[in-house]
Amino acid sequence: MSDRTQPQPQPGIMEIALYVSGESKLAGGGEALKLSANENPYGCSPAATAAFQAAAKDLNRYPATDHGPLRRAIGDIHGLDPDRIICGVGSDEVLQFVAQAYAGPGDEVITTRHGFAMYPILAHAVGATPVTVDEADRRIDVDAILRAVTERTRIVFLANPANPTGTMLSGEDLRRLIAGLPGDCVLVHDGAYMEFAQPDYRDADLVDAYPNVVMTRTFSKIHGLGGLRIGWGYAQRPIIDVLARLRQPFNLSNAQMAAAEAAMRDTEFTAHCAAENARLRRWLRNQLVQMGVACDESHANFVLARLPDAERARACDVALRDAGIIVRNVASYHLPEALRITVGDEAGCRRVIAAISEFMAGERAAR
Ligand SMILES: *Cc1c(COP(=O)(O)O)cnc(C)c1O
């Protein structure tokens, strides 16, 4: 007999481990250098700020339900059909629509060992079972994913470039993955960091070629609008028609849409951010490797610094905090020996390298 004495949540919900975001405050207070959430060190486009402020005069008005101007701006800049774009409250909301639409109790949702923490949360939230597939040296393993597919698999979530590893699959690998998936299994290509990469393929071409692929992008990273919560997805029409039914008509406010549209059209700002990120990311990795801290080549706006072991990663994290720098401990991503460091501006990068260098020197002296 079921318990009728108190409200009972739907299956899966109590399996959710609450998402822990990158910390922003130091225990002792004081101004911290925050390199823990992959935020844009240059802020956002001034045009986006101006558009946001201008939207303040119409706060009594409901927003448009169709997101028309924003979808046209995205379509113009990315060369996409605006009718196949869906916008959400962060790309997280678009990912949530996909989970709600295509998975439920008894279904399996594939994620990978170091995959983004939202994917299992979204699977549990719809009562589905997340299935975690091993990676090979912090790289998504296409063959391992294909081996894990069963008749219950409904969705495969992957980020490319991946967070927190920063590694990237090639277009050839992705095509092999999609070709091996059953047609009723949706591949979600989460491109939150695509603008920082130089991929050998175009994610929209995958969408055009395959009816079961959804690509997502966000305004939170290169556009520097994480605080405003805007993202979008692109897929073939049948999928978009399904997702649109789940979207609340007023999910995005006027201010969100106006700022996002201006940010999308400011290609000079995004090009500047991408170029600075690439330059400083290379410098960060070289510096780390030179001081004996392992670091894979990153295709995103962060690097994953691998200390010799978990104990020293924790000690380095403490040393950085003592220096007023917050990075991301990624033990919950099965990477206890690593720290994820957002590529800051040049001063921020120099500061974090100086602090890690001092830590490593102390380690050498102690041993
Ligand atoms: C930051 C990030 C996102 C973006 O999420 P928003 O909801 O758009 O802020 C999506 N996927 C991955 C892997 C990320 O790291």
From TrEMBL:
What are this entry's molecular-function GO terms?
Answer: histidinol-phosphate transaminase activity
Record key words, sorted: Amino-acid biosynthesis, Aminotransferase, Histidine biosynthesis, Pyridoxal phosphate, Transferase
Pathway it belongs to?
Answer: Amino-acid biosynthesis; L-histidine biosynthesis; L-histidine from 5-phospho-alpha-D-ribose 1-diphosphate: step 7/9
Write out the transmembrane intervals: none
Q: Which cofactor does it need?
A: pyridoxal 5'-phosphate
What are the Aminotransferase class I/classII large domain coordinates in residue numbering? Answer: 33-356
What is the E.C. number?
Answer: 2.6.1.9
**Matching Pfam families:** Aminotran_1_2
Fetch the InterPro entries from UniProt: Aminotransferase_I/II_large, HisP_aminotrans, HistidinolP_aminotransfase, PyrdxlP-dep_Trfase, PyrdxlP-dep_Trfase_major, PyrdxlP-dep_Trfase_small
Q: Does the keyword Amino-acid biosynthesis apply?
A: yes
**According to its UniProt record, which reaction does this protein catalyse?**
L-histidinol phosphate + 2-oxoglutarate = 3-(imidazol-4-yl)-2-oxopropyl phosphate + L-glutamate
Under the subunit heading, UniProt states: Homodimer.
Family as reported in the entry's similarity comment: Belongs to the class-II pyridoxal-phosphate-dependent aminotransferase family. Histidinol-phosphate aminotransferase subfamily.
Question: What name appears for this protein in its UniProt entry?
Answer: Histidinol-phosphate aminotransferase
The species is Paracoccus albicereus
What lineage is on file? Bacteria, Pseudomonadati, Pseudomonadota, Alphaproteobacteria, Rhodobacterales
This protein's encoding gene: hisC
